[in-house]
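ok so i was messing around last nite and threw this chain in just to see what happens. nothing serious, just curious
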Amino acid sequence: MRILHIIYDDIDNPWLGGGGATRTLEIYSRIAQRGHTVQVLSGNYPGAPRNHARENVSYRHIGSRQSYVASRLTFIMLSPFLIKRGGYDIVIEDVSPFSPVGAPIWVKRVPTVASVQNLSGKHALRKYGVRGVLPRLVERPLLSLFRNFIAVSPGIAEELRKLRGAQADIRVVPNSAGEFSFVSNKYDIQEDKKYILFLGRIDVYQKGLDVLLDAFDRVATQLPDIKLVIAGGGTEQQLAKLASLLEKSGHKDRIEITGQVNKQEAARLMKWALMLAMPSRYEAWPLTAIEAGSAGTPVVGFDIVGVRDAGPPYPAAHGFLVPGGEGGALADKMIEVANNPGLRSAAAEKGRAWAARFTWDALAGEQLAFYKELTVKKRA
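result:
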């Protein structure tokens, strides 16, 4: 089978580098190992090669690398020309209203699939103001072009059913912690668990970093030995927003911003954290939540679609969730979890058992089976 996957993000993209890019490589490297040909179209960025291969998956970076906005816009404009060249048995688009391609418009003779990592909805306006009007208007019409969907969580699948109705063919294929290893070895020196961790893309609105900093001020007052570590990359604009918020914090001397970290450092930070903070305003299936389960690290965050899917509330798994947007409740829960090592230990056991249910090998098999089913139907 010849597969084309369209996704703006890439694991080395300094402006994003999110979970969707990681998922793309993990899934398709395994599909490629099974003898299928995979081409990924992604956006350009500084230092990106035009064409290269990762683990038998061919990547082509298209568009401008001069700026994040130019990169997004040129990716949207150029993608249709490459899609129309054809030669594929199935075309998948990682649907985003911020870089809409609309694969079904350009592809008529093969199945198309929308891979849905997130639904921004009303958050586009709240996050970007006037600049969010166009993405807000684009999202529903973009999704209406597709009949076949891969949703990364049951919550996203339910939202898609509301939008597209009974005619939609929706499969839930979540994310895995994969080879994000937390296994101890003789060279591993345990550190005191003295910090709360945020790990992920720096996006102040979506990830709720403004709420987190406010909540940490309250936590820091009651727990004088605890610090906050914020790890992840983002655009210059988002990093500037974070820096501005940090200056207003009453405990900025106890907040460390590391920037983007590699897998090994991310695993170390996750393993020795008191908890992973997830005050996101919206999510689909956050990869870091399932990685936290694998690490035996509790997730403290808001009870929203995506977070509750990937980090179900204790005692089912390792999540300690409070109503969305309630920063005071978030601070109280972080204090409770930090002060209770027995609770953290019990949650660690539940989290490891939960995360072990999801492996990239099995998930790649599920996704490939869906592709085969669609291509057989199309030929028939």
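not much to say yet. Residues 94 and 325 are 28 Å apart (CA to CA).
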